[in-house]
Amino acid sequence: MVNWADEFQIKRLDVTMRYRMQMIRHQEHSLKSNGNPKWLECLFVHRKEIRRSIHLYYESEHLCLKAATSKDEESKEPAEQLDKQIVKWRKGYRYLVNLCRDEHSTSKQQEQECLVEYMQNDKYNEVIRRLMSLKQSATSDLYAYYNSSLIDMEECLKTNLSRYLDRIRNIMETLNKCYTITM
Fold it and tell me: For residue 183, what are the contacts with CB-CB under 8 A and spacing of at least 6?
């Protein structure tokens, strides 16, 4: 599970960086200064709008990431609880093995019969089978959660980038008007 969590964190980072790189690429392409004093003056006059647009992108990106990771710990909890229960039952098994070994140290056959008897009395094999089944189900649910949160996050970032590009287009229209007026 730790490997999955790390893997999905890397995938989230990859998706986030892909959208951030697109945002920066559009920003550099659209809002670069070309050395023309009139264009620089227009950029300076509208710098608050530009900064606000960039700030809104980062703020929305943060909200997308926060939403994607908000239920991580909650989603891991059932599988982790089952891991703890399985560990307890395994300790119990080791205890029974040692107990039977101590009681029947002379005969391997009697030792194994003793272990089987204890396990049948405690319904040990049924409990372990049930725990393993629950663990498999919880792990499957966790994997599904990670995948859906990744898809939801990507959709959120895509929407965020689209809104940012709309704001940049509006700013570019304003900058172009400013540039033609100052000419």
Answer: 38
Asked if residues 78 and 141 have their Cβ atoms less than 8 Å apart, the reply is: yes
Please state the pTM of the whole predicted model. 0.73
* Dihedral, 136, 138, 139, 140 alpha carbons, nearest 10: 80
Q: In the structure, what pLDDT confidence band is assigned to residue 183 with cuts at 50, 70 and 90?
A: low
List the domain boundaries for the chain.
2-182
Angle, to 10 degrees, between the axis of helix 2-31 and the axis of helix 47-69? 170
HSE toward the beta carbon, residue 93, CA cutoff 13 A: 12
Burial (CB count within 10 angstroms: exposed 0-12, middle 13-18, buried 19+), residue 23: buried
- The answer to whether the beta carbons of residues 37 and 82 sit under 8 Å apart is no
Band the pLDDT of 180: cuts 50, 70, 90: confident
Mean pLDDT of 42-71: 91
**pLDDT of 19 over the 90 cut:** yes
User: Rounded to the nearest 5 degrees, what angle is found at the Cα of 17, between the Cα atoms of 13 and 20?
Assistant: 140
DSSP structure class, residue 183: -
DSSP 1-37: -HHHHHHHHHHHHHHHHHHHHHHHHHHHHHH---S-H
